[in-house]
Write a structure and sequence with these properties.
Length: 103
């Protein structure tokens, strides 16, 4: 995959507003966005958080899938960034995963 542009998306998960988040058997759609013309979505199923491009298409690719240690009384900030050099996932502003878009 080649990425030409840079971008960032982020969102907050508040246990009071999202009591179902990151619990067993709960699937949650968090957001959608565009990465260089590719449809991106962020979902969670149980404790697993995924960033997927082009879901349901021949070009579908899962960029990240990682377990989140969700504390029931703490708001958490999720951030994804992309550039020609890397795609990164930050949890509470701490880099958690980084991959090259060329892999």
């Amino acid at each position: 995959m080649t990425i030409k542009d840079s971008g960032t998306v982020n969102f907050w998960v508040d246990p009071e507003k999202n009591p179902f988040a990151f619990k067993d058997d709960n699937k949650v759609f968090w957001m959608d966005f565009i990465v260089d013309g590719n449809d991106g979505i962020i979902t969670s199923e149980g404790k697993s958080l995924s960033l997927i491009l082009n879901e349901g298409k021949d070009t579908e690719i899962c960029i990240f899938q990682t377990d989140v240690d969700f504390e029931p009384n703490k708001r958490r900030m999720f951030t994804f960034t992309w550039s020609p050099d890397s795609i990164c996932f930050y949890l509470d502003a701490v880099l958690t995963q980084e991959v090259s878009p060329n892999n």
